HAD family hydrolase (Vreelandella neptunia), 254 residues
Amino acid sequence: MTMLKAITFDLDDTLWDNHGVMARTEEGHYRWLLEALEAWRAARQEPDLALTQEAGGLDYLQRRQQLAKQVPERRGDFTWLRLRALEAQLEAAGLPRSAALLWAAAAMNEFHRLRVQVTPHPEAAGLLAALTERYQLAAITNGNIHLARQPLAAYFPVAIAAGELLAPKPDPTPFLTALSRLNVTPECAMHVGDSWQEDVLPAQQLGMHAVWISQTGDQALPPRVHRIAHIKELPSVLEMLESQGLERHHSGGV
């Protein structure tokens, strides 16, 4: 009889609502960069760079998109794409390469400061605290949030940034990496996430249980897949599995 030993979680739009976070982070870190550069150059009696929030931001986006095409193995490493795009943009705008590297790094530090300003669902911390008493937990994300600085980091001794593995979900590599670090087999693990393509299908195809967080959807679900509307409903899925005999009690009883 299969015993569920581990649960892996997606982060954005699973444990918190990510709506607006990226927009604020995108606009905020680039505005910070332009304002800081303006002050720095004014103190040096140097003219402003020909970069604006709107046009510069669009160029910054296009440079990232072009880099993702040119270096496809890095397409999911969003921090690398942003950093390289900013370096190139600042150098093209007239900064010496050494200054471009320093200012791009400073802007990415501001990006990550803003990026972790998410608000977990009110139920998330209590739920994860309860789950740690019965299961090993891990986080698997395609996002470039600094995992060690995100609000629920303490509950995830194993945290996988898939882009940094150069294998963003739905590639199985981040799932297999998490399972290896947890020392559990796929059939003894469950993945929870909001994306059908990036979370549910790859987990299910590996033999894991999968919980799909979606407020809509009435299609037939494949084996080992369950749908809930909100993370707070996860305990009901675990109780169902236990009642169906798919999970042994935590004490080890069969």
